[in-house]
Design brief:
The structure holds two protein chains of two kinds.
Chain A: H1 2-17, E1 22-26, E2 33-39, E3 44-48, E4 51-64, E5 70-78, E6 87-92, E7 102-114, E8 121-131, E9 136-137, H2 144-187, E10 193-197, E11 207-214, E12 221-231, E13 234-244, E14 250-261, E15 266-278, E16 283-287, E17 290-294, E18 300-312, E19 317-318, H3 328-333, H4 338-360
Parallel strand pairs in A: 1-8, 11-18
Antiparallel strand pairs in A: 2-4, 3-4, 4-7, 5-6, 5-8, 8-9, 10-17, 11-12, 12-13, 13-16, 13-17, 14-15, 14-18, 18-19
Helix pairs in contact in A: 2-4
Chain B: H1 7-15, H2 20-32, H3 34-55, H4 63-83, H5 100-123, H6 126-141, E1 153-157, E2 160-165, E3 168-171, E4 177-185, E5 189-196, E6 202-208
Antiparallel strand pairs in B: 1-2, 2-3, 4-5, 5-6
The chains are: A alpha+beta, B alpha+beta.
Chain lengths: ~350, ~210
């Protein structure tokens, strides 16, 4: 009897572990992207407790089936839509895909899905495609329209900056700037940050700490005050007062949150995206129910905020200029745009000639 | 002038213990190097002095017996040290014989408890360990405890991004690309920027807390 039970249990275990991951690429019929091929051979699943841990590795080949050039793509990768660990996304900014051209897109993502009768399933959906005229196609459930448009505007700003530098300061001037950017990239401080929704486990005494602000000269949103609750190595519930100093209504803005610890180390801790509805000249307040936890030895001493992007109600955007980002503090702390990262890698791989050729493509 | 021969090789050469092919090379060097030749002569002189000293020991020394006597002397020294030590170090003699099994059982129980607690502590997920540490520190300091977090935790570090819940962790990694930056959004997501090292194509992978 006991051996029968063991055999049944073993068979059950084998049946569970032998499940193959189902996959589905679900693009709408009028999608500007067509999946040409996909390779999921490296995707693995492991039963863990009452769930599958899916280690999704896939390479998709996608074709631009529209009549416009594609600048960015975001795919939602789902194992389950509503539960923690079941949703991820993959975005590729700084693309330049002509109509009819194909390009590769890698998905490397861990997901969690519950054990169920149908076995594990990964679904790839198109969240958005951004074209070269800044028009957008997609469901935009992950707000990819906003993020991809900001990336594209940053890409145009940075390419223009490097091209102007090439024209005015020559090849030596461009090289000097690129080397300076590479040095900043190498020395940029980073610290482990945990994002916790709601209240966290910290039991240290709590105090209120006010934000200092770096004011961007051309920003439509001006932060006028703000604070967060600090307890030891945690900062929670940021609250920021803002004023719209532009002549257009603002519906969304994003702030960078810089933290300085008691040893004097500074790093970019997080971004604070906020939906607002702020008429010209009006003031408002945003609060977020989230907490940032740093490493045990990082005790928060001071905080600085700066506006990193804004979206007007008419659908246009504001991003800081290269000159505004030249503030010594910002320059050393904030990450370069995806386009600058791409151009630096091209310089690293192909040298100055490769970089100049890339800049001349646009 | 060639580099000098290592002192260890010179010592082996002086005692005739160097390998044949090395001996020829060292011999050639020593013949032309005053410094090394002097060192070799000093080693040879030391060897002769040792042999003379060994000749002074009585014939038929029993090395096993000599070793046993030395060990016994060490034990006598330790016992003498115990005799002159303060009385507090003999506390075990204060426990009555009838209580000794109870004391022994208590000691074994305490050691087992230490092992169990240590094992449990080491195997507990680090996040829960930290939370418990903080709670214990708080109780020690007299602060009131705050409720436990219920939501998931997203972590961004120079290693990439990770989603943690109930002691489990899901990490994001791309073997073929270089991690450039990570970022956290207070709206509940973390992103990692990877750059393909050949093409420069940037891929941004994000995980969502809800």
């Amino acid at each position: 009897m006991r051996s029968k039970i063991l055999i049944i249990a073993l068979a059950g275990t084998i049946a569970v572990t032998a499940q193959t991951v189902g996959r589905k690429i679900d693009f709408p019929a009028d999608s500007p992207l067509t999946a040409v091929s996909s390779d999921w051979s490296e995707t693995r699943e492991t039963p863990r407790g009452g769930a599958y841990l899916l280690d999704v590795h896939a390479v998709l080949s996608l074709r631009n089936s529209s009549q416009r050039r594609i600048r960015g793509v975001t795919l939602a990768v789902l194992a389950q839509e509503v539960t923690t660990g079941g949703k991820g996304s993959v975005s590729v900014p700084s693309l330049d895909v002509a109509p009819g051209e194909a390009f590769p897109l890698r998905i490397d993502l861990p997901l969690l899905c519950p054990l169920g009768a149908g076995g594990p399933m990964v679904e790839v959906r198109l969240d958005g495609v951004l074209f070269d005229d800044l028009t957008f196609y997609g469901s935009d459930k992950l707000h990819s329209r906003r993020t991809m448009t900001v990336w594209e505007l940053e890409a145009r700003r940075d390419r223009k900056f490097f091209k102007t530098l090439l024209e005015t300061a020559g090849i030596d001037g461009l090289q000097k700037e690129i080397l300076s950017c590479l040095e900043l990239q190498r020395d940029r401080p980073s610290a482990g940050v945990q994002m916790v929704r709601g209240r966290s486990t910290n039991n240290d005494p709590e105090r209120e700490l006010k934000f200092a602000f770096l004011h961007m000269p051309e920003s439509p949103v001006d932060p006028t005050g703000g604070s967060a609750r600090i307890a030891g190595n945690e900062a929670r519930a940021p609250q920021i007062n803002i004023q719209n100093r532009s002549d257009r209504a603002v519906k969304h803005f994003e702030m960078g949150w810089i933290v300085k610890d008691q040893q004097g180390r500074e790093f970019l801790a997080a971004s604070i995206p906020s939906d607002v509805n702020l008429a010209p000249g009006k003031s408002g307040q945003v609060t977020q129910d989230s907490a940032l936890r740093f490493s045990e030895r990082t005790l928060v001493d001071s905080m600085t905020g700066f506006v990193s992007s804004a979206e007007y109600s008419d659908g246009s955007y504001w991003i800081p200029s290269r000159a505004a980002l030249n503030d010594p503090k910002l320059r050393s702390l904030i990450a370069p745009s995806p386009e600058e990262q791409r151009l630096l890698q091209i310089y690293h791989k192909k040298g100055l000639g490769g970089l100049v050729a890339e800049l001349k493509k646009f | 002038m060639n580099r000098h021969v290592k002192e260890t090789d010179l010592a082996l050469y002086a005692s005739g213990d160097l390998r044949l092919w090395q001996r020829a090379a060292v011999h050639l060097h020593v013949r032309n190097c005053q410094s090394c030749s002097t060192v070799v002569e000093e080693f040879r002189a030391d060897g002769r002095a040792l042999r003379d000293a060994a000749a002074g020991l009585p014939d038929g020394v029993d090395w096993a017996r000599l070793s046993a006597e030395m060990t016994a002397n060490v034990r006598v020294g330790l016992a003498a040290g115990e005799c002159v030590a303060p009385r507090g170090r003999h506390a075990h003699k204060l426990i009555p014989a009838s209580w000794r099994p109870v004391a022994l059982a208590s000691l074994v129980t305490a050691m087992l408890a230490v092992l169990l607690v240590g094992g449990w502590w080491l195997n507990m997920p680090s996040q829960e360990t930290q939370a418990l540490s903080r709670a214990m520190r708080s109780i020690w300091r007299g602060h009131s405890a705050m409720p436990e977090e219920r939501g998931p935790v997203i972590e961004a570090s120079s290693e990439g991004i990770e989603l943690r819940k109930d002691g489990g962790a899901l990490g994001v990694s791309q073997d073929a690309a270089k991690l450039m930056t990570v970022s956290v959004s207070t709206q509940g997501s973390a992103s990692a920027h990877y750059v393909d090292q050949d093409t420069g194509q940037v891929t941004i992978t994000s995980v969502y807390a809800q």
